């Protein structure tokens, strides 16, 4: 019964199957870990202990009755950006501090129907805006590998929780790298599916044409299992594509012999920490030795990724966040003198600095006189970047590189300069702009801090990414490393 | 390109955000940095490039004209702090 | 100084779908506040819009009915502003790429000739909710039932040159949308709303003058009065040396004046951009042809056909075709009788309209069906009763006393056409009025009316008037 937390999702599923332990026992063990360790990390906003144990009990009963869903009895954590019915959903913000969602997000529903047990909601950068989990109203999350350092963001809570073994998996979202970058910084695997692969219904919107829901786990195998449940057409989301969902688990074992990998010339420049670069190059070499071949690809417009993103994402979010006015839900300023006062103070008080900054940036780039120079221009450059990817994908199956420019940085380090913080997403943003699926895979350490390998695939080819990661994980064991304090 | 305080004030008004005096100063500084940063986009040659609003080139799906949403007013209004007779309340608006 | 008036109209018509444009909540009018506002309509965090197929269908029908281009590709855009009846803080509308463009329709100008009014565009958008400002102390109450109801915004070219033309255009659009069945056009309930952009310029000047927008005109009468007031106001202002300010004004029907409205947004920078939650709407030419094939006969075509096929007067044809139910009623009646269509038209436009108006009914709720009216008119045509008696029978039918034949039978209203019977009455009348007979014979021809009246009185109006006249004249001349 000890060490249940060291098992991967797949291993836990096997344990439940063989009757080694029950879901109730497993769930209680995880809840105990959270209670014992989360004070140090602050990865959780809400722990739903009662609900979890009830769900676990039901899962055990279902199992006994032969009714075994794909995730029966398995404990997971949801990023607090997913609406969970009857349960507080804060999005890391004071604005939604006491918001009890009246409905479940589609992915929450699907995972519950598959028998998953939800331990609670994880901390995140406010409204998913950030790369360090320092903008949360509920305080920063700490990296289990070094409590003075950031776990990355915006899905910092989910990444830290998985790295600290609070749960074998956590859902997360990615708009510019918010799944992959925290995964890289915490030594976990994080996958952002193709735009339109997973429903966005019930996922509080940041930048609608960039946001995607995914997972953070410790292995490709685990991610394959979860993605199989989450992915697929949802009639409630117009941008969710009706594309058949492959059996990701079954396809994992397929050989990567002949897989063509592209390495972006522009990535390995002075912005990348040399040691990180070396780890990533080693990882690519390892994958080559498993049968893949690597070639250089050219993406001439890739350096425009970050400025493009920082026009498009704020523009969309400035509009998406207009609904937060205190009238129907959310923080409401007291004793408002008039309507204008109600709006300005509710929003001024409810939103943190980074959120306000992005709303203002977005408002500016959409405003009369600036729309053409900024928003329209950014959407054009976006097209150029997407075309660079498409051109590269004519030659290769997967594009490989570093996930983040450096390992985990110290909390407070980059908070003052917005641009330095934004540049954390330099390698990951391109995939969001083009809607391509991408994954970060643990591939080593620099000064005892994890480093991630970034892989981008063709639209709807999550399978190639998972196969590649799986093959790599069969040959290496970076993904099994655990932070000392959380072993 | 730097922004000045008046511009930031206008933007904050459009976005209905109340900023404290110290917030203004910080906003002017940081927003100016951000705008300077994104100004780099002007260096890209986008002649004849179609703006990309969506990553995927697909058309809008249509839904049949059927009513499926029931009345859940009471449940939904649990999250609102000021409601009378089913109406959401705001400070009086004069048109 | 001769002034020319330049008017452009923006009409918002609610589309008569069952569910909303982007959500599956009901659009039915009159429900308790916020009982038809689902999470999508309330703009809850995480919800997303999905487009109603019927809305696209209705917009395409409208486009074809006004000879417009139905766009193969149109895009929804967000119009961003803050107001309590707009829960998301933006309205989903269409901006650069609307679904319908470059249409036209024809109205009758002051001389009765056809005048073409261009329709710049028609686009789809969602309606906002409603605010209640009375009875809530220092608050306003927001009802979001209406939020998300589909609207088609129809924008005319500034081709309209008078208040009367504006009303004619508005009526034509009103008729078309009801013909197509895409809107009930109910102005009291707010399903058909009109804003007028009004400006003046010296006749001959090419440049447009500054325009003022008059909002939310919800009756044909008010539109005419509001425009007339506004034109006067602008002319007076300019002639006194002032300048017209571009602004939004409301029409006050009690005082019959327009006044400046407090602006909703200080600087109306709507920051339009394509809505990233919705994809471009694509319409194939096959789809358009299918819709074209399903279009009903449109008012202009129907009116022309009524004039040529039924030999009707143009004005009558116009009135009968002003709504499909009226036109259908008329044609059903014509089909069921040998009486001339013009006779049918007279009765529908006259007595039937009168009765409907008196009881506040639509023709669909008429207490006399088209077939039954036809039955009455047949009895006029075959001389069973006179036109005058028919009016009596009509009233009885309206009161539910039965069919024309039943009432004629029951009340013994059959026209007397028997010559000897009429002769007998004529003789009686002549005998009873020797004085008038003498005067008549002396040359007072007009007295024939008196004699006819007397005969009618004797016969309770049932003698055939033509025969009465003939026999009287014969006997009086003899």
> What is the count of helical runs of chain B?
3
Distance between the termini of chain C: 71 Å
Number of helices of chain C: 16
Number of domains of chain C: 3
**Contiguous uncertain segments of 5+ residues of chain C:** none
Beta strands of chain C, count: 17
CATH class of the domain at 5-41 in chain B: Mainly Alpha
Rounded to an integer, what's the Rg of chain C over CA atoms? 30 Å
What is the averaged pLDDT score of chain B? 93
Q: Quick one: how many beta strands of chain B?
A: 3
**Arrangement of strands in the largest sheet of chain C:** 3-7-8-11-1-12-13-14-15
Rg of chain B, nearest Å: 23 Å
Task: Write down the secondary-structure element order of chain B.
Answer: HHEHEE
Oligomeric status: heterotrimer
Overview of this protein structure:
The complex is a heterotrimer of chains A (487), B (95) and C (478). Chain A has 16 helices and eleven strands. By secondary structure, chain A is of the alpha/beta class. Chain A has a single domain (4-262, 396-486), classed as Amidase signature (AS) enzymes (Alpha-Beta Complex). Chain A has an eight-stranded mixed beta sheet, with helices on both faces. Chain A has a three-stranded mixed beta sheet with strand order 1-3-2, with helices on both faces. In chain B, strands 2-3 form a two-stranded antiparallel sheet. Chain C has three domains: 3-290, no CATH class; 297-411, no CATH class; 419-477, Arc Repressor Mutant, subunit A. Chain C has helices spanning 39-42, 53-65, 163-179, 220-239, 285-294, 299-310, 314-320, 324-335, 341-359, 370-381, 387-398, 404-411, 419-432, 434-441, 448-458, 465-477, and strands at residues 3-14, 51-52, 69-70, 73-74, 76-80, 90-94, 100-108, 114-126, 130-132, 139-143, 150-156, 192-202, 212-217, 248-252, 257-260, 273-274, 281-282. The longest helix of chain C is centred in the middle third of the chain and has 20 residues, at 220-239. Chain C is elongated. Chains A and B meet through helix 10, helix 11, helix 12, helix 13 and helix 14 of A and helix 1, helix 2 and strand 3 of B. Strand 3 (87-91) of chain B pairs antiparallel with strand 10 of chain C.
């Amino acid at each position: 019964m000890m060490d249940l937390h060291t098992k991967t999702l797949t291993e836990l599923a096997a344990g439940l199957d063989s009757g080694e332990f029950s879901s109730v026992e497993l769930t209680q063990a995880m809840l105990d870990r959270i209670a014992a360790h989360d004070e140090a990390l602050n990865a959780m906003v809400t722990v739903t202990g009662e609900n979890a144990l009830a769900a676990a009990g039901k899962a055990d009963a279902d199992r006994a009755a032969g009714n075994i869903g794909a995730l029966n009895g398995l404990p997971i954590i949801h990023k607090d950006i997913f609406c969970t019915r009857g349960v507080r959903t804060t999005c890391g913000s004071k604005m939604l501090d006491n918001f009890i969602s009246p409905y479940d997000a589609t992915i929450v529903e699907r995972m519950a129907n598959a028998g998953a047990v939800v331990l609670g909601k994880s901390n995140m950068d406010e409204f998913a805006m950030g790369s360090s989990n320092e903008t949360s109203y509920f305080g920063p999350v700490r990296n289990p590998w070094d409590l003075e350092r950031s776990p990355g963001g915006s899905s910092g809570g989910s990444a830290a929780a998985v790295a600290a073994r609070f749960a074998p998996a956590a859902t997360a979202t990615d708009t510019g790298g918010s799944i992959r970058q925290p995964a890289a910084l915490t030594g976990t695997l994080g996958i952002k599916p193709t735009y339109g692969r997973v429903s966005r219904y019930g996922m509080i919107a940041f930048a609608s044409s960039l946001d995607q829901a995914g997972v953070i786990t410790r292995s490709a195998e685990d991610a394959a299992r979860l993605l199989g449940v989450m992915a697929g057409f949802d009639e409630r989301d117009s941008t969710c594509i009706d594309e058949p969902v492959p059996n990701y688990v079954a396809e994992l074992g397929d050989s990567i012999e002949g897989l063509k990998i592209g390495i972006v010339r522009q990535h390995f420049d002075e912005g990348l920490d040399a040691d990180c670069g070396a780890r990533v190059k080693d990882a690519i070499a390892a994958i080559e030795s498993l049968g893949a071949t690597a070639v250089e690809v050219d993406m001439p417009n890739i350096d425009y990724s970050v400025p493009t993103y920082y026009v498009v994402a704020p523009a969309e979010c400035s509009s998406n966040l207009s609904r937060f006015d205190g009238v129907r839900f959310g923080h409401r300023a007291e004793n408002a003198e008039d309507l204008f006062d109600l709006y300005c103070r509710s929003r001024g008080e409810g939103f943190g600095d980074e959120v306000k900054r992005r709303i203002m940036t977005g408002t500016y780039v959409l405003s009369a006189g600036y729309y053409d120079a900024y928003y329209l221009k950014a959407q054009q450059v976006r097209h150029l970047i997407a075309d660079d990817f498409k051109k590269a994908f004519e030659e290769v199956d997967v594009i490989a590189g570093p996930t983040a420019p450096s390992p985990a940085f110290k909390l407070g380090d980059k908070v003052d300069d917005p641009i330095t913080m934004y540049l954390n997403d330099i390698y990951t943003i391109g995939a969001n702009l083009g809607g391509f699926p991408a994954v970060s895979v643990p591939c080593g350490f620099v000064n005892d801090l994890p480093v991630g390998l970034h892989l981008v695939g063709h639209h709807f080819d999550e399978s190639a990414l998972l196969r590649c990661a799986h093959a790599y994980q069969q040959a290496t064991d970076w993904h099994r490393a655990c932070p000392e304090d959380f072993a | 390109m730097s922004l000045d305080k008046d511009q930031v004030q206008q933007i904050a008004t459009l976005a209905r955000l109340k900023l404290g005096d110290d917030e203004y100063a910080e906003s002017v500084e940081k927003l100016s940095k951000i705008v300077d940063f994104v100004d780099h986009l002007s260096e890209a040659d986008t002649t004849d490039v179609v703006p990309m609003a969506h990553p995927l080139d697909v058309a809008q799906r249509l839904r049949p004209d059927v009513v499926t949403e029931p009345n859940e007013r009471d449940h939904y209004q649990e999250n609102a702090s000021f409601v009378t007779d089913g109406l959401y309340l705001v400070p009086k608006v004069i048109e | 100084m001769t002034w020319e008036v330049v008017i452009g109209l923006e009409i918002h018509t609610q589309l008569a779908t069952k569910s909303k444009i982007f959500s599956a909540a009901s659009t039915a009018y009159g429900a308790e506040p916020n009982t038809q506002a689902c999470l999508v309509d309330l703009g809850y965090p995480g919800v997303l819009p999905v487009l109603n197929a019927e809305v696209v269908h209705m917009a395409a029908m409208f486009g074809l009915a006004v000879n417009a281009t139905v766009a193969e590709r149109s895009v929804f855009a967000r119009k961003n502003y803050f107001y309590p009846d707009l829960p998301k803080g933006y309205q989903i509308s269409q901006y650069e790429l609307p679904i319908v463009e470059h249409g036209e329709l024809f109205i009758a100008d002051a001389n009765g000739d056809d005048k073409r009014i261009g329709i710049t565009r028609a686009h789809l958008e969602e309606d906002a909710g409603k605010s209640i400002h009375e009875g809530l102390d220092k608050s306003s109450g927001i009802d979001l039932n209406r939020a998300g109801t589909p609207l088609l915004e129809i924008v005319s070219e500034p081709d309209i040159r008078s208040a009367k033309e504006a009303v004619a255009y508005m009526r034509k659009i009103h008729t078309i949308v009801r013909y197509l069945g895409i809107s009930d056009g109910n102005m009291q309930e707010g399903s058909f709303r009109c804003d007028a952009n009004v400006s003046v310029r010296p006749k001959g000047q090419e440049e447009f003058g500054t325009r003022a927008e008059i909002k939310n005109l919800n009756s044909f009468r008010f539109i005419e009065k509001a425009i007339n007031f506004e034109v006067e106001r602008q002319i007076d202002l300019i002639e006194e040396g002032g300048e017209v300010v571009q602004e939004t004004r409301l029409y006050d029907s009690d005082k019959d004046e327009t006044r400046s409205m407090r602006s909703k947004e200080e600087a109306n920078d709507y920051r339009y951009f394509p809505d990233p939650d919705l994809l471009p709407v694509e319409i194939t030419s096959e789809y358009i042809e299918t819709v074209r094939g399903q279009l009903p006969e449109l008012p202009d075509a129907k009116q022309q056909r009524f004039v040529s096929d039924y030999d009707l007067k143009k004005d009558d044809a116009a009135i009968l075709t002003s709504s499909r139910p009226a036109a259908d009623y008329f044609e059903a009646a014509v089909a069921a009788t040998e009486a001339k269509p013009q006779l049918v038209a007279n009765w529908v436009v006259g007595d039937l309209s009168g009765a409907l108006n008196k009881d506040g009914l639509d023709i669909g709720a008429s207490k006399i069906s088209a077939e039954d009216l036809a039955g009455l008119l047949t009895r006029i045509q075959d001389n069973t009763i006179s036109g005058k008696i028919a009016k009596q029978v009509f009233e009885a039918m309206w009161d539910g006393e039965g069919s024309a034949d039943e009432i004629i039978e029951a009340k013994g209203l059959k026209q007397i056409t028997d010559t000897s019977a009429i002769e007998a009455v004529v003789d009686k009348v002549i005998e009873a009025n020797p004085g008038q007979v003498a005067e008549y014979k002396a040359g007072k021809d007009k007295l024939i009316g008196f004699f006819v009246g007397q005969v009618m009185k004797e016969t309770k109006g049932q003698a055939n008037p033509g025969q009465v006249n003939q026999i009287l004249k014969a006997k009086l001349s003899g």
